[in-house]
């Protein structure tokens, strides 16, 4: 059997980390602290193990061996530690090239370097909420992915004077839009707790939820229902929080909420929002409503 102590972030990057048991078949990696049971030492070769280039190495009374690759566990990804790890593994495993092993370890160190966010301040709280919901070893990859997504401009509006209704019973259509909003609340009330309050401050929670739950990919046959629910909810927020009024249309995407001299199109925005997972960021509802707030100043 064997044991180890090592940086969690670095272990996540190791090959087959989840499959390594207490008695691995091969030494795919060495760690900051390594403990090899007697049987494992004998399998590798006691003389070989006892001559491992190590920072510390102790043969215990039960025949097991405890050794470390460097003085401190806090610098396991430093170049000095990577050189030590490469030397140790090359010593313990036949056929391992030092240069190839060192480059493998250095590549893993590079993958651990923090990626700085470059997204704009207008959706920083959305992006941070998304990125902070994953474990640190995966955050850099996620931040890089988010950095690469272009944020769509808010162009889902028309001049208010150009928008008129074309439905026979506008009141009935407005009741339907309100029902759509209630459907979203019913769907997410136990997942996005503040959703029933129609508060713009809670929209980053909604955006992050839609990013992490990938509804368009999971339920492609129900995207139209989600568009109706999200668009109805955002439209009702504009009515309740900003004093808007619905202008119903036969085409749902044309249905508008008039505030001042602009008519905003929440269903059109919702369709972009739900085109795929990235839409939750690229067509962020947080950004949409904040642009409306700016337009009203």
What does this structure look like?
The protein has about 300 residues and is an alpha+beta fold. The chain contains 14 helices and 8 strands. The strands form 2 sheets. A 4-stranded antiparallel β-sheet has the order 1-2-4-3. Helix 6 (about 125-130) crosses helix 9, helix 8 (about 170-190) packs across helix 11 and helix 11 (about 225-240) crosses helix 12. The model has no long low-confidence stretch (mean pLDDT about 90).
What structural class is derived from the secondary structure elements? alpha+beta
Provide the helix percentage: 40-55%
Largest sheet: 4 strands, antiparallel
Quaternary: single chain
How confident overall, as mean pLDDT? 92
State Rg. Answer: 28 Å
Order of helices and strands: EHEHHEEHHHHEHHHHEEEHHH
Q: What is the overall silhouette?
A: elongated
Separation of termini? 68 Å
* Topology, number of strands: 8
Describe the protein's topology.
Blueprint: E1 2-5, H1 8-13, E2 33-36, H2 38-44, H3 46-50, E3 56-59, E4 65-68, H4 79-92, H5 98-111, H6 124-131, H7 136-147, E5 157-159, H8 170-188, H9 203-213, H10 215-218, H11 223-242, E6 245-247, E7 256-259, E8 262-264, H12 266-273, H13 279-282, H14 285-295
Antiparallel strand pairs: 1-2, 2-4, 3-4, 5-8, 6-7, 7-8
Helix pairs in contact: 4-5, 6-9, 8-11, 11-12
């Amino acid at each position: 059997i064997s044991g180890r102590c090592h940086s969690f972030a670095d272990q996540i990057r190791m090959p087959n980390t989840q499959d390594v048991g207490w008695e691995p078949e091969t030494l795919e990696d060495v760690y900051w602290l390594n403990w090899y049971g007697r049987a494992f030492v004998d399998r590798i070769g006691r003389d070989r193990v006892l001559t491992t280039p190590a920072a510390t190495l102790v043969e215990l009374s039960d025949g097991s061996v405890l050794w470390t690759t460097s003085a401190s566990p806090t610098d396991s990804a430093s170049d000095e530690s990577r050189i030590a790890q490469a030397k140790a593994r090359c010593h313990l495993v036949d056929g391992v090239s030092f240069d190839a092993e060192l480059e493998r370890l250095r590549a893993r160190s590079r993958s651990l370097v923090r990626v700085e966010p470059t997204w704009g301040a207008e959706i920083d709280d959305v992006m941070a909420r998304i990125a902070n919901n994953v474990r640190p070893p995966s955050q850099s990859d996620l931040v890089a992915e988010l950095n690469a997504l272009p944020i769509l401009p808010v162009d889902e509006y028309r001049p208010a004077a150009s928008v008129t209704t074309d439905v026979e019973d506008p009141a009935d259509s407005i009741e339907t839009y309100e029902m759509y909003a209630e459907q979203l609340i019913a769907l997410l009330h136990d997942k996005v707790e503040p959703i029933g309050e129609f508060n713009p401050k809670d929209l980053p929670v909604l955006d992050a939820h839609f990013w992490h739950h990938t509804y368009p990919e999971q339920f492609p046959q129900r995207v139209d229902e989600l568009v109706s629910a999200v668009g109805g909810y955002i439209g009702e927020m504009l009515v309740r929080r900003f004093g808007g009024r619905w202008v119903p249309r036969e085409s749902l995407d044309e249905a508008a909420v008039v505030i001042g001299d602009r008519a905003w199109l929440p269903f059109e925005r919702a369709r972009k929002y739900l085109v795929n997972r990235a839409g939750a960021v690229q067509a962020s509802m947080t950004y949409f409503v904040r642009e409306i707030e700016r337009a009203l100043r």
